[in-house]
Backbone:
């Protein structure tokens, strides 16, 4: 049964890929294609839901199928693990996935290559499900690279624009850096298992399967904790790549080049949370290593802060949300680092609701604004597109942490778990607690920059696109008019925004409801904590989310309210009337922040240019030298002989004959010597 | 039991190739059909043989032995085991593919004749069980490649062909000396000069061959090693490959199979015949492999010509084979052996697709390409699959070999086997980042962006789709179910590790595992 959750999206992918083009050419084909794209995901959700219904939270069922890699002493079968962690992710992926597929049928309605888009999207769902459901690290790795591939394909979906293709390349290559760490982590696990065969059942060759690995690792680390640190760091490098943590986050903002439903599904709700899922799966590693946990905490907190500050400098509505995602992922890692893995997953879940909502909302805005993404050209949209506005407001309050909404509960749990942790100390510094305080501040910033985004978009004194002269030069400067769109469809002063169709507003409404109620339902009576207890926590290790001497609730409400207020004060007026956006007194800072303080540029330039220098240095300096030294030396002689091909040919033949002769003489003389030697 | 089936495979292409030369000039046009037919026949035999091959046995099968120069202990002795069975199949398969995609403008009779001879001699190399016979085939197989490059290549063909011959012949001369040393030592050790691989291997396993002559062993080892490193090619012995790739008209066959002779030789001879030399130098060779992975990857990213890019990519991929082979560990060797087969498929698939592109007037300069995807969507999908295989995506055949090779190397490093270190695998792992960089760069250059010219560029027709599709199916099929290839190899690979386990058993047991 569980195989169908993966099988259906694969069938959907194959169908779209093989027959989509023909079907699309026929009349009404797009409607049918869209329906057939949503259907497998929706059914998969149904299957996932019914399996979850009958799931005992304390057990993990393993479903094994055919072997994949099988050699003496090592095997990796196709096997799935049904437990609370994997099924939670399955529900998020297929549930939110189905909603976003539905939304995309409307959003991409004018797209020429409709079926190509949905084939990638279906393939993504399949890969993501393999990632979370696989019962061994190598199946996780299939999914890990598979979602990377789909992300690459979808970021570069509008490939005729080379900047999109380059953003896609960047995403894949930066992820590969993370994957390098993860692969080494897998090698280390396998090597540890081989070196400690006595901990594994005799004849067991599934050296990367969770049910074999996790109990054994616990015992190995109990005796030798340094391996836990090394393994933890290696796994975390992988997580940093996929979950866009510093220093590997730079691909995610660029990934916004993809269509907005992709940003919502892949680059907000599901794929980027893979790192958190990995840490949950492998929690025994981090539990055994305070050092690795502290690293996770510190990197998470720093990324959260760094990305939140950068968000203030963005003018592109999707970029604000992208940095916000990076920042929120930082929150999840802080919780995992503090040892509260279930809290990380809690925030994954609520974040999936409200961030998908916000992204889809931004897509609705973009849709309404003729594919313009620059917030400087928005303003006063609240009445024009009321459904979008209302649902996005719920997302805004949820991410800001307004009490009662989903974001409040998960964020409070994150802050609580970090602030309550007093065991992670390095040189007397309580690392986790510090990370917690940083997160409190970031929570305030989050409320503030989201307020900025909402005010710039929906409020203000005037509809700023009215100031754009029809067909002015802004069109050339801007990079958002996509091939797929009707070319006459460009934002100018005459534009009238329209609300989105039902296929797009329905997902917004459902996600808004989830964003309101989801957190409370999971928070109530520690429901989510108990649900994940067997898969994301070790029995006997108690992680508190309630610091005893810090008024947690007051702090988290305070941060949210203060942030919302500050944002309102600063941005309520909208943009300074005549000066425009970039001339206020904060503008130099904002510009700096907008450019990620030069970090990405530095990195890209040093990697690309530096790489080029190294490569051409090797090419011209060493390789040419090697080739000439070792190769041409002998070749030059024959080159001398022949000035043209005819002569050279005889030269070649002569050389060859000579060599063969030498060979034969050599062989014969050796044998003669040998015979003589023996004769003596 | 004597079997003639291997001899058929070797000599039918060679004799038919010679026969083709003797045909009158009027038959130029039919030469491709004739060569295709011959090659198809050989592929049929190979496939049948692969099916009948007994996977559980480690020894040689389909053996045939005829006395040749008895006074020197040389015999015409051939056979296949798990290590060579797939190389034989690959040679037959890519031989056919090379013929199918070639359309020489002139002298097609000689062209296809040389292709057939090349195919036959390569089959001889992979099946020879007598060192002298191996050397003979090894040498002869160099000639067709040089001649094909010289007369049908483009650009500086003379330079490429000369460099190729000069480097590989000088390498193989060293091997010849090594072969002679072994034959001589056989006389000393067992009383009879012999070049028979199995006899020699037995003598090595019993520890009689090299008793008291460690210096001779090192000397012979070096000869074999350098010959194969030239052929593989490993850095810094790779000088010939870029020029051959750039000008040779048949990168598919050369890149896919001819240079596999090098890595095959490493696995077949270097790993089994020189246990003490391996203990001293094995780890260094693994390092050469890992450096090659990174070196090839960096340089590939810097190329403007797609053939030069693929040449360096080959160096990088071959590095993985060497890393796996010199991990002295079952998983590493399985990975190396699988990667050897896979790289034949992976590189040939790219070359085949490029050939289709050239047929439409394309040229190998990356800066002139662009925007192919919108004009040739099906072609771009086929190319995408080939690219993904080359960058080692899981569930393509490119992943299995690299992963097992690196894992094996890491494991050996972890327990300190034969001086291998864990950082060798970590270094080779950087190759997977680089392969993504240069492969995606190539793909972007070819397919994305706006078209730079306005050639019509028709998408593939059904014949071309079938040809490209076979590669796609092989890539995905072997990626999803690699056991088809892995299973038959297993027993023979295990016997490779057995040879040296005589000396390394204790060191393995002693070391509990340190990073």
Residues:
């Amino acid at each position: 049964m569980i195989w169908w959750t993966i099988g259906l999206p694969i069938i959907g992918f194959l169908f779209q890929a093989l027959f989509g083009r023909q079907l699309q050419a026929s009349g009404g084909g797009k409607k049918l294609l869209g329906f057939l794209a949503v259907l497998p995901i929706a059914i998969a959700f149904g299957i996932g839901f019914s399996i979850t219904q009958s799931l005992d939270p304390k057990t993990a069922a393993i479903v094994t199928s055919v072997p994949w890699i099988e050699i003496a002493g090592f095997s990796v079968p196709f096997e799935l693990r049904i437990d609370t962690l994997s099924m939670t992710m399955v529900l998020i992926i297929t549930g939110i996935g189905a909603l976003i597929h539905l939304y995309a049928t409307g959003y991409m309605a004018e797209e020429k290559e409709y079926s190509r888009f949905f084939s990638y999207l279906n393939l993504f769902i399949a890969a993501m499900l393999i990632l979370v459901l696989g019962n061994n690290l190598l199946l996780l790795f299939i999914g890990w690279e598979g979602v990377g591939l789909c992300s690459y394909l979808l970021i570069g979906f509008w490939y005729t624009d080379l900047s999109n293709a380059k953003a896609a390349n960047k995403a894949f290559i930066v992820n590969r850096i993370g994957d390098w760490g993860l692969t080494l982590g897998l090698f280390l696990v396998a090597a540890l298992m081989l070196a400690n065969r006595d901990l594994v059942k005799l004849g067991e060759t599934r050296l990367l399967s969770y049910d074999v690995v996790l109990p054994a690792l616990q015992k190995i680390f109990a005796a030798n904790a340094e391996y836990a640190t090394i393994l933890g760091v290696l796994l975390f490098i992988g997580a940093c790549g996929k979950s866009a943590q510093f220093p590997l986050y730079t691909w995610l903002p660029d990934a916004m080049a993809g269509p907005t439903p992709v940003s919502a599904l892949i680059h907000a709700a599901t794929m980027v949370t893979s790192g958190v899922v990995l840490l949950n799966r492998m929690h025994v590693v981090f539990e055994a290593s305070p050092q690795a946990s502290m690293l996770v905490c510190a990197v998470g907190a720093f990324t959260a802060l760094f990305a939140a500050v950068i968000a203030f400098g963005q003018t592109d509505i999707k970029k604000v949300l992208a940095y916000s995602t990076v920042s929120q992922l930082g929150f999840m890692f802080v919780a995992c680092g503090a040892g509260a893995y279930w809290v990380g997953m809690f925030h994954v879940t609520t974040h999936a609701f409200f961030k998908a909502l916000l992204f889809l909302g931004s897509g609705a805005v973009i849709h309404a604004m003729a594919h313009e993404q620059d917030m400087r050209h928005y303003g006063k949209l609240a009445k024009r597109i009321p459904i979008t506005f209302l649902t996005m407001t719920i997302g805004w309050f949820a991410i800001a942490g307004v009490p009662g909404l989903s974001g409040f509960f998960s964020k409070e749990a994150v802050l609580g778990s970090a602030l309550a942790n007093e065991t992670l100390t390095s040189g007397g510094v309580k690392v986790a607690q510090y990370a917690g305080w940083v997160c409190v501040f970031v929570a305030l910033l989050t409320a503030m920059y989201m307020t900025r985004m909402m005010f710039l978009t929906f409020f203000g004194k005037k509809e700023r696109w009215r100031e754009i002269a029809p067909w002015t030069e802004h069109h050339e400067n801007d990079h958002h008019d996509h091939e797929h769109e009707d070319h006459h469809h460009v934002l100018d002063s005459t534009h009238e925004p329209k609300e989105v169709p039902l296929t797009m507003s329905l997902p917004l409404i459902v996600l808004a409801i989830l964003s309101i109620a989801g957190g409370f339902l999971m928070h109530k009576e520690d429901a989510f904590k108990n649900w994940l207890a067997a898969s994301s926590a070790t029995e006997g290790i108690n992680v508190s989310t309630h610091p005893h001497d810090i008024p947690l609730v007051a702090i988290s409400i305070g941060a949210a309210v203060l942030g919302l207020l500050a944002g309102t004060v600063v941005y309520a007026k909208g943009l300074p009337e005549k000066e425009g956006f970039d001339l206020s007194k904060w503008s130099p800072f904002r510009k700096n922040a907008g450019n990620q303080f030069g970090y990405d540029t530095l990195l890209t330039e040093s990697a690309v240019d530096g790489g080029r220098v190294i490569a051409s240095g090797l090419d011209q300096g060493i390789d040419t030298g090697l080739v000439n030294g070792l190769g041409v030396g002998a070749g030059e002689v024959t080159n001398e002989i022949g000035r043209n091909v005819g002569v050279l040919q005889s030269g070649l033949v002569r050389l060859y004959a000579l060599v063969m002769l030498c060979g034969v003489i050599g062989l014969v003389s050796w044998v003669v010597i040998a015979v003589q030697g023996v004769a003596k | 039991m004597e079997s003639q089936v291997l001899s058929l495979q070797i000599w039918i292409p060679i004799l038919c190739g010679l026969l083709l030369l003797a045909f009158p000039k009027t038959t130029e046009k039919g030469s491709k059909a004739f060569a295709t037919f011959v090659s198809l026949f050989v592929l049929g035999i190979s496939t049948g043989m692969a099916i009948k091959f007994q996977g559980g046995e480690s020894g040689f099968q389909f053996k045939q032995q005829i006395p040749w120069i008895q006074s020197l202990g040389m015999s015409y002795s051939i056979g296949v085991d798990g290590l060579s069975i797939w190389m034989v199949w690959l040679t037959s398969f890519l031989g056919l593919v090379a013929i199918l995609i070639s359309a020489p403008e002139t002298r097609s009779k000689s062209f296809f004749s040389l292709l057939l001879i090349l195919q036959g001699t390569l089959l001889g190399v992979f099946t020879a069980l007598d060192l002298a016979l191996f050397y003979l085939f090894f040498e002869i197989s160099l000639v067709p490649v040089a001649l094909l490059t010289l007369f049908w290549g483009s650009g500086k063909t003379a330079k490429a062909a000369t460099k190729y011959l000069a480097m590989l012949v000088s390498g193989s001369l060293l091997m010849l000396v090594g072969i002679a040393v072994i034959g001589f030592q056989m006389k000393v050790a067992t009383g009879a000069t012999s070049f028979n691989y199995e006899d020699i291997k037995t003598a090595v396993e019993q520890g009689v061959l090299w008793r008291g002559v460690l210096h001779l062993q090192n000397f012979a080892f070096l000869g074999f090693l350098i010959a194969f490193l030239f052929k593989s090619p490993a850095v810094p012995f790779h000088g010939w490959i870029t020029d051959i790739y750039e000008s040779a008209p048949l990168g598919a066959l050369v890149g896919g199979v001819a240079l596999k002779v090098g890595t095959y030789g490493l696995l077949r001879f270097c790993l089994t015949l020189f246990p003490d030399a391996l203990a001293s130098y094995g780890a260094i060779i693994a390092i050469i492999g890992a450096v090659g992975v990174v070196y090839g990857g960096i340089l590939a990213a810097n190329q403007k010509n797609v053939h030069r890019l693929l040449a360096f990519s080959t160096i990088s991929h071959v590095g993985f084979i060497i890393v796996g082979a010199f991990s002295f560990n079952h998983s590493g060797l399985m990975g190396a052996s699988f990667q050897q087969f896979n790289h034949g498929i992976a590189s040939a698939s790219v070359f085949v697709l490029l050939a289709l592109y050239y047929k439409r007037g394309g040229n190998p300069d990356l800066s002139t390409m662009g925007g192919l995807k919108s004009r040739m969507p099906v072609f771009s999908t086929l190319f995408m699959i080939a690219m993904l295989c080359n960058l080692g995506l899981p569930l393509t055949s490119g992943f299995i070999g690299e992963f097992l090779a690196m894992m094996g190397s890491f494991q050996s490093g972890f327990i300190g086997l034969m001086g291998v270190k864990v950082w060798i695998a970590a270094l080779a792992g950087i190759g997977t980042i680089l392969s993504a960089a240069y492969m995606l760069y190539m793909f972007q250059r070819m397919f994305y962006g706006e078209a730079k010219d306005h050639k019509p560029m028709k998408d593939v027709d059904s014949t071309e789709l079938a040809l490209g599709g076979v590669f796609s199916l092989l890539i995905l099929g072997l990626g999803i179910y690699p056991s088809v290839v892995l299973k038959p190899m297993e027993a023979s690979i295990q016997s490779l590790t057995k040879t040296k386990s005589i000396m390394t058993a204790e060191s393995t047991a002693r070391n509990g595992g340190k990073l």
User: Anything to note?
Assistant: The beta strands of chain B are 61-69, 74-80. Chain B touches chain A through 89 residues (CB under 8 Å). The first helix of chain B runs from residue 5 to 22.
